[in-house]
Write a structure and sequence with these properties.
- The chain is of the alpha/beta class.
- It has one domain: Rossmann fold.
- Helices cover 38% and strands 14% of the residues.
- It contains 13 helices and 8 strands.
- Strands 1-2-4-3-5-6-7-8 form an 8-stranded mixed sheet, sandwiched between helices.
- Strand 5, helix 3 and strand 6 form a beta-alpha-beta unit.
- Helix 1 runs parallel beside helix 13 and helix 2 crosses helix 3.
- The longest helix is centred in the last third of the chain and has 21 residues.
- The two termini are 36 Å apart.
Length: 333
């Protein structure tokens, strides 16, 4: 059974937690929260560096709207296994694990998919590998990635420096607490600013004290589990590309599945202008895409006190509207 009450977003212990060992042998920890276990399922996929708990404000809102929310700690994070084999982190293997969680919970109806950052990247492939399982989907703070490898490398050239930096696993692990303490506005910095800030901050790192209880929870989880698992998500491009080629994934997304792209005008990691109208037309030939850009914002605005209510409302209202539209759609019989 899923949790039968609305949790307190400031209390991680108020969320209903479950775990499942999938066929790969990896254990997945996930939140399963609802007021109605038979409610429409919303599957929430977090990004980096985040956890299922990162969706706490959206979970509370969706539960109050009547939805059943399932939010896993993705592989390498939180209470989920942290293998060292990069193949375990492939999008295809992760999608299969999500399907096993849904099957274990006896969820047979199509789900609503919501992804942020790397969770969005996983959502992209879930929609393509298992379109029959998705009613509609939300991608938040990441551009759509087609299986065309060379084109994606070109489009993401502005973030290559950041990705290379994130490959220095042990360097980041040595300063987990200090890194989280400096996420004052939950935003990502620009590609050339990151190295400079780390160098300047190094002499003072030992003086930082984290007092925010929500951030302290993230700290405790990452200090226990480290960053080697989470960083593995940045290193599977070759593996994913091989899987995509073998499955002959299309260069566009299913026209019959509605999608919401949610972005922030001030997100330096993924500025909205890079997601061009040409790209939208190519990836969504059925024009079944809605775009919503929040003025200002940042990369983690779903948790930011300034923006999280707006993010929560946009996601909740769009999902509500999709279900209403589907109910009113005339039968083809």
């Amino acid at each position: 059974m899923s949790g039968n009450q609305t949790p307190n977003p400031k209390d991680p212990g108020s969320f209903t937690r479950k775990s499942l060992v999938v066929s790969s042998g990896h254990r997945y920890s996930y939140i399963d929260q609802s007021l109605n276990a038979d409610g429409q399922v919303v599957l929430l996929l977090h990004g980096f560096p985040d956890l299922a708990y990162g969706w706490r404000y959206q979970i509370c809102d969706l539960v109050n709207r009547g939805y059943r929310t399932i939010a896993p700690d993705l592989l390498g994070y939180g209470g989920t296994s942290k293998p060292t084999d990069l193949k375990a982190y492939s999008k295809l293997n992760s999608c299969k694990a999500l399907c096993e969680i849904l099957d274990h919970e006896n969820i047979r109806k199509k789900v609503i998919l919501v992804g942020h950052d790397w969770g969005s990247a996983l959502a992209f492939r879930f929609v393509q590998y298992f379109p029959e399982k998705v009613k509609c989907w939300v991608t938040y703070q990441l551009y759509f990635m087609s299986p065309e490898f060379s084109e994606e490398i070109h489009r993401y050239r502005r973030t290559i420096i950041l990705l290379l930096y994130l490959h220095t696993d042990r360097g980041l692990e040595n300063h987990i607490q200090e890194s989280f303490a400096r996420l004052k506005d939950h935003s990502f910095v620009g590609e050339n600013v990151l190295r400079k800030q780390v160098r300047e901050a190094a002499p003072q790192l030992e003086k930082i004290e984290v007092k925010d209880p929500e951030i302290r929870y993230f700290l405790s989880e990452f200090e226990k589990g480290g960053l080697l698992g989470p960083l593995s998500w940045y290193k599977t491009r070759d593996i994913d590309h091989s899987d995509e080629q073998a499955a002959s994934l299309p260069a566009s997304y299913p026209a019959e599945i509605p999608c919401l792209y949610l972005g922030a005008s001030d997100d330096p990691a993924f500025p909205p202008p890079l997601f061009t109208e040409k790209s939208k037309a190519k990836l969504f030939p059925g024009a079944n895409l809605t775009s919503h850009i929040i003025r200002g914002g940042n990369h983690f605005m779903h948790q930011d006190p300034v923006y999280r209510d707006q993010v929560t409302e946009v996601i909740g209202n769009w999902i509500d509207n999709q279900l209403t539209t589907a109910q009113n759609r005339p039968s083809r019989l």
